[in-house]
Amino acid sequence: MTVEIEIIAAGRLPRLEDRPLEKRIGLIILATDHTTEVDFQRMVAGDRLGVYVSRIHYANPVTPENLLRMQPSLTEGAALILPEEALDAIVYSCTSASVVIGDRNIEAAIHAAKPGVPVVTPTAAAVTGLKALGARRISVLTPYTIETSRPMADYFSDLGFEIDRFTCLGLTDDREMARIAPDEILAFARQALAPQSDALFISCTAVRAAEVAARIEAAIGKPVVTSNLATAWACLRLCGDDRARPELGQLMTKPYREG
């Protein structure tokens, strides 16, 4: 026998806040990405700051041609993050594609869906971070092939950085890049740094370099910027979080100044 349960309507509607969380950051990441969400939950998300993710199609191998194919998906990816609601920043989390597509083209594609939102790319954030650290001469470590690394070398060189040493690991699958053991990242970072460089940049949002950035700095005695460390730092600063967090690396002690 079914007993009818009385359901009572409340006498008023609840009071609504403007936002569930004070600040919100959007992430556009590759369908194959294992690392960005984890890094942002660890370094960025908190009681006042939410991280909201949209994944877009990507097919390996990592080549300039395959990276460029993501450009048409950027507007739709941005539109799917809290539709019709404002974001405080939005990240396109692919370093090599940011070079191939171009920072300005990425910004335009995202603004087609989210007008006016600050757009963060790993490349632009890394440049800003390196400048904040006072680095002019740099060494670079990437997981890519020489073919995919070449446009990145040109990108930093064209922006006025002197590249003392550029090392690539020759991988073509971003899922394998995510599986590089942290101790291996540290070992390759030691080899990648030229003694005369002011800082080391470790590229690729798939590589778990941000979690060992401080360990690498302790080992090499120079500042380290990684793709996810740079975008996390930029997003925190854009959202008004100016806390110094040296345990994450020297970059997280610096203010953020665009341009």
Automatic annotation (TrEMBL):
<dbReference type="Pfam" id="PF17645">
    <property type="entry name" value="Amdase"/>
</dbReference>
<dbReference type="InterPro" id="IPR053714">
    <property type="entry name" value="Iso_Racemase_Enz_sf"/>
</dbReference>
<protein>
    <submittedName>
        <fullName>Ectoine utilization protein EutA</fullName>
    </submittedName>
</protein>
<dbReference type="InterPro" id="IPR014332">
    <property type="entry name" value="Ectoine_EutA"/>
</dbReference>
<dbReference type="InterPro" id="IPR026286">
    <property type="entry name" value="MaiA/AMDase"/>
</dbReference>
<keyword id="KW-0614">Plasmid</keyword>
